[in-house]
Amino acid sequence: MAKLRFQISMSLDGFVAGPNQSEENPLGEGGMRLHEWAFPLAAWRERHGLEGGEVNASSKVVEESVQNLGATIMGRNMFGGSGPWTDEPWEGWWGEEPPFHTPVFIVTHHERPPVTKRGGTSFTFVTDGIESALEQAHAAAGGKDVALGGGAIVAQEYLRAGLIDELQIHLVPVMLGDGARLFAGLGDTKIGLECVGSVAAPGVTHLTYRVS
Amino acid sequence: MAKLRFQISMSLDGFVAGPNQSEENPLGEGGMRLHEWAFPLAAWRERHGLEGGEVNASSKVVEESVQNLGATIMGRNMFGGSGPWTDEPWEGWWGEEPPFHTPVFIVTHHERPPVTKRGGTSFTFVTDGIESALEQAHAAAGGKDVALGGGAIVAQEYLRAGLIDELQIHLVPVMLGDGARLFAGLGDTKIGLECVGSVAAPGVTHLTYRVS
C-alpha cells in the first residue's frame, strides 16, 4: 500500500531550523548546517539540475528517498513563507525547475490557483486540511508513495493525526541551541516507532523508522 | 591519552528522563522505557550480577562501553537523590554490589565520607566541582578511561566545560514529550561532534560521537 514518507534533517539537540526564522532566512540562524551533508552529493545535485558531485554513504539514502514517489506534501512555510504571495502570485523559493519532480500539495490557509513548473513539478494549494492534502496527493501519486516535505509545523500535524507511515531523520551532529523543534506540541500522541535502518555517513547519520 | 567517555539513553525527542522525576521515580514518568533495550542483554545482566540473557547487536556496544574504564563520575541525582542521605548515611540506589565495578566520584554539594562496596565499587563525594572530580577520577583510573554516568545536569556541566572526549547516545525510538533534556542550558557552547559509529539494534540505535 502506498505510504506517506517523511524525511527531515535534525540537529542532535532536536531542531529542524535555527532561531529567528524569517522570509529572508527560512532555515533560521545556523539552520543551513543541517543540510550541508547533502550539498556535495551527486545524487542531490542531479535532483537540483546540477552536474558533478561526490558519492558517499549518503548517496544511496538520497537515491532511495526519491524512489517510488508520486507526490509531495509541504507546509506553506516550506513553499515560500506567508508574506509575498498573499498579495501577488509569488511562486516560492523553488525557482523555475523545482527539485520535487512530482505534483506538490501545499497545506495553507490561502487559496490560490495551481501553478505548473518545469520538470514535473506542480504546486496545488490545499485549504481544507491535512487529510484532504493527503487524499489529493495519494490520488495524484497513482499508487506510488507520497513524501511529506516539512516543515516542522505541518509534520507535527501529520504526526498527531497518525498519518505518517515512515519517518527518516537525517541526524546532524550539530547543536543549534534554539529554533524549531521537530518533536514538540505532540501532547499525548502515542507514536510507535521501530528503527528499521541506520546509516552513518560524513556529517550525518540517517535513521529510518517505521511508524505503527 | 585517557578519555572522558559519556554515554546515556535518550528518547527521539531528546529526553533522558521523563516528567515528574522524584526520589521514588528518579527516571520520571515513562523514563524506564529508555533503558528497556538493555535489560534483556546477557552483557547488561552480568554487570548487574545476574545470569542468562540474550545476545543481539547491542551486546558488543555494552561490552565495549565498559572496556578500559578505570573510574566513573556521576551527579548526585544519579547516585541517589538529595533527600535521604543529607540526614542519614543513605547509600544510593545501587545496593551492596553496584554495577560500576570502579571507583565512583559523585559531584555534589554535600560532604560525606567515602563508602566502599563489593565488586570494586567505591563512592567518593566531591564537593569542589567537576574539574576536581575529573582529576580525582583520572588519578584513580590509573591511565584507563573515565566514564561519565549522568544525569543530564552534570553532563551539561561537563559539556559546557568542553571536558567530554566521547559521547555515546543510545537513541530510543520513543517520545517522552516532557522531562529532562540532555541538550539544554548549553548556551553558546560550541561543541564539535563527529559521528564515528552507528549501530542499529532492537529498540535502540547506538550513536558514538568524537568530541573535538
Properties at a glance:
212 residues; nine-stranded mixed sheet; 5 helices; homodimer; two-stranded antiparallel ribbon; Dihydrofolate Reductase, subunit A; alpha/beta
Report what the structure shows:
2 copies of one chain form a homodimer. With 212 residues, chain A is an alpha/beta fold. Chain A has a single domain, classed as 3-Layer(aba) Sandwich (Dihydrofolate Reductase, subunit A). The longest helix of chain A has 12 residues. At the A-B interface, β10 and β11 of A face β10 and β11 of B.
How would you sum up this structure in a few lines?
2 copies of one chain form a homodimer. Chain A has 212 residues and is an alpha/beta fold. The first copy, chain A, contains 5 helices and 11 strands.
Give, in order, the helices and strands of chain A: EEHHEHEEEHEHEEEE
Radius of gyration of chain A: 16 Å
CATH 4th-level superfamily of chain A: Dihydrofolate Reductase, subunit A
Task: Tell me the CATH topology of chain A.
Answer: Dihydrofolate Reductase, subunit A
CATH class of chain A: Alpha Beta
As laid out across the biggest beta sheet of chain A, the strand order is 5-6-4-3-7-1-8-11-10
Mean pLDDT metric of chain A: 90
Helical segment count of chain A:
5
What's the total count of β strands of chain A? Answer: 11
Regarding quaternary structure, what we see is: homodimer
Low-pLDDT windows of residues of chain A: none
Please render the helix and strand layout as text.
Two copies of one chain form a homodimer.
Chain A: E1 4-11, E2 15-17, H1 42-47, H2 57-65, E3 69-75, H3 76-80, E4 103-107, E5 115-116, E6 122-126, H4 130-141, E7 145-148, H5 152-160, E8 166-172, E9 180-181, E10 193-201, E11 204-211
Parallel strand pairs in A: 1-7, 1-8, 3-4, 3-7, 4-6
Antiparallel strand pairs in A: 2-9, 5-6, 8-11, 10-11
